[in-house]
Amino acid sequence: APDVILIGEIRDRETMEHALAFADTGHLAISTLHANNANQALDRIINFFPEDRRPQLLHDLGNNLKAFVSQRLVKTKDGKRRAAVEVMLGTPTIRDLIHRNELTELKGIMEKSTNLGMQTFDNAL
């Protein structure tokens, strides 16, 4: 059985359910999702699901999250472009905030956790 499963893009609830099922069985599930940052990615995932399924979803996400990595191309002072990267790692604190649906707190924790490898877009610029 594979250890890592690559899912092209998560566009709907069914694909997200498969990704979570793979992660729940010990696979590393890697995918893309169009969003501007980690918080927006979480919001998009949550909004795939009806209200009554969200508590279980947050539990599953909190248990299985390894990282959200977001990137944007930004113009540099000399007119070129470079990647700005945001990284949110699935630390115990991040997982706990997701479990409790306290998503507005995530950015603050990311800003304080650069020593762990996290970075907001603001830090990247």
Topology:
Blueprint: E1 4-9, H1 13-24, E2 28-32, H2 38-47, H3 54-64, E3 67-75, E4 81-89, H4 92-99, H5 106-112, H6 121-124
Strands, total number: 4
Structural shape:
globular
CA radius of gyration is: 15 Å
Strand order of the largest sheet: 1-2
- CATH topology annotation: Rossmann fold
State mean pLDDT (0 to 100 scale).
94
N to C succession of SSEs:
EHEHHEEHHH
**Architecture in CATH?**
3-Layer(aba) Sandwich
Number of domains: 1
- Helix fraction by DSSP (H/I, runs of at least 4): 40-55%
Note the gap between the termini.
41 Å
Percent in strands:
15-25%
CATH superfamily: P-loop containing nucleotide triphosphate hydrolases
Q: Structural class of the secondary structure composition?
A: alpha+beta
The biggest sheet amounts to: 2 strands, parallel
Low-confidence stretches: none
Domain Bacterial type II secretion system protein E: 2-82
Protein name: Bacterial type II secretion system protein E domain-containing protein
GO molecular function: ATP hydrolysis activity
Pfam families: T2SSE
Describe the structure.
Pfam families: T2SSE. Belongs to the GSP E family. InterPro entries: P-loop_NTPase (IPR027417), T2SS/T4SS_dom (IPR001482), T4SS_GSP_E_ATPase (IPR050921). This is Bacterial type II secretion system protein E domain-containing protein. GO terms for molecular function: ATP hydrolysis activity. There is one protein chain. This protein has a single domain (36-124), classed as P-loop containing nucleotide triphosphate hydrolases (Rossmann fold), CATH 3.40.50. A hairpin with a 5-residue loop joins strand 3 and strand 4 (81-89). The protein is α+β, with helices and mostly antiparallel strands and 125 residues long. The protein has a two-stranded parallel ribbon. The chain has six helices and four strands; from the N terminus they run E-H-E-H-H-E-E-H-H-H. The model has no long low-confidence stretch (mean pLDDT 94). The chain has helices at 13-24, 38-47, 54-64, 92-99, 106-112, 121-124; strands at residues 4-9, 28-32, 67-75, 81-89.
